[in-house]
Amino acid sequence: MSKVYVCEDNDQQREFMSRTVQELLLVEEFPMEYGVATANPHELLEKIKGETDTGIFFLDIDLQCDMNGMELAQKIRECQPRSYIIFATTHSEMSHLTFKYKIEALDYIIKDNRDELKVRIQQCLHHVMESETRQGESESEKNYFVQTGGRITPLSYEEILFFEISETKGKMYVSTKDKCIEFKGNMKEIEEEMDERFCRCHRSFFINLDNIETIDEKNNMIVMAGGAECPISVRLKKKLLQQIEDRNTFMKEQL
Questions:
Q1: Disulfide: which of 93, 157, 159, 190 matches 142 by Cβ 3.0-4.6 Å?
Q2: What is the DSSP letter of 217?
Q3: Among candidates 68, 108, 113, which has minimal Cα distance to 88?
């Protein structure tokens, strides 16, 4: 049975998160156990030694310790590769560190508002329960986290249509079927984070191959689900078409 852990250096925040988790486990009857809430990342790592079940970890980033939350998440992954990592922090400006540490997080919660924090904790536990019921997290359940102002928005890889370089320096757009969000970022970091279903089709566009509707090779244009169009550069065309073919082959093998 999965266990839920909290690592938070602020006493009041740790107590609130710990109490919230325990109440939710009791009221919602999640098939999970309460593990430990601690300010010490070393204590948490000691607790999970030898644990074989998949853990759910709510981690602060700035732990005021010799190990930050991102480093802790890396060490947790070494012990439990399929663990669920959720960052809960007041430091929204530190979200970019997920690129540096290559942490695939389930969610990134800004904990300034306790009511919202409680709702997001509940949503995360529901998500874990559903994923475990389906016997493992599929590739479609990966999330990309977009920071706009002080808010972090999780977007599933599955719903993303494409990324586009903004006309504003240092900014990007991410488009889904129902929204387009401008955020601070760069194409190189995005390419490094996303998986094999994404491909560069143009200097300014990075698309989700699974959401292609049609390809107009004559006019070098791709129509995405929902009707949005993305240009194909001559330089990248051959590589793009090969990656599409490889992706289609892979998807057929999964059937």
A1: 157
A2: T
A3: 108
